[in-house]
Amino acid sequence: MSMDDLAYLEALMGSSSEVSRGGTGGVWVVSLDGALPDGILRLIGKARVVADTLGCYVYFLACGSATADEAQRAIQAGADSVLLATGAPTLDDLRTFFVDKAPQGVLFPDTAPGRVLGPGLAQALGGSLSGRAADLAVDPIYQRILAHQPVLDDAARQVVALLASPAIAVVDTDALPAAFNEPWRTGNVEETGLSWARPVAVPAAKRPDPASPVRPAAVKSASIVVAAGLGLNTEAGVALAGRLAEALGGCLAGDVSALDSGWITEDQLIGLTGHSIAPRLLLALGIDGDTSFFMATQEAGSIVAVQVDPRAPIVPVADYNIIADPAEFAEALLAVLGE
Length: 339
Description:
This protein has helices at about 5-10, 40-55, 70-75, 90-100, 110-125, 235-245, 255-260, 290-295, 325-335, and strands spanning about 25-30, 60-65, 80-85, 105-110, 130-135, 135-140, 145-150, 155-160, 165-170, 190-195, 225-230, 250-255, 280-285, 300-305, 320. It is α/β, with parallel strands linked by helices. It has two domains: about 5-195, Rossmann fold (3-Layer(aba) Sandwich); about 220-335, Rossmann fold, CATH 3.40.50.
């Protein structure tokens, strides 16, 4: 037996003192808000199961203000190493953190920040993505992480192999088994020295007003879709997008940022956790674009993107780009259409 084999067996027994400090490779769990609820502990336990099959370590990146007691709870739940950072990271912060660590997998909880940062990190690192997984496993032959994605309100699940590394998954922690609690397990706790400023908070989701003229439509089968993104800035901007969809004879939809802002319902969501669409025309208003959105719209006939940022990820993907304020564009087009 080699020293590497011995070190790995010690890690499985929770007695290793030589877990790579700072962490490279391995399966990572990211907590974005400093809290350590039961769902995060369940996610660490699932990472433990996946890592045991892959033969690697589990790293827990605790952003915010995790205490020593919480770090120990994470270790008892299955983490080999806990890395502490203050504040909440942006996508650029996470890209910089992970770019030289070569993780095999990165797991986010299915929260509003996780649904934004998970797909963004997959795109930034050139990895693969499961936008909403109910469970994870490992292909016993090819040693690839498998995501079990719920379909038909979890009446069935489709298994998706995450081929590109790192494999990134946004996981519904409520669907996972109970968290491990193994008080005999030991691990490292490391202060990273990183202090991230808290980014602008994702707005709390609100139920759309049932009296609003903007109503869910058959997004999946529509020939014209107007998709709203965070670049519309306000509910008034989204209302303009809804009026434009009606004037064009199409329907209103949006990306995950619009869902998390409370501007659309899940019936109107475009992405891996929502609808995959193939309209004749997709008009994207204020959508930056990420892997989840692109994969769900790759069958669209023409994509017209209206975006203030000429460097946004959607720009090279769209067939036509209009660099302008999306709300002002919608208002001007409505005027041309006589609305």
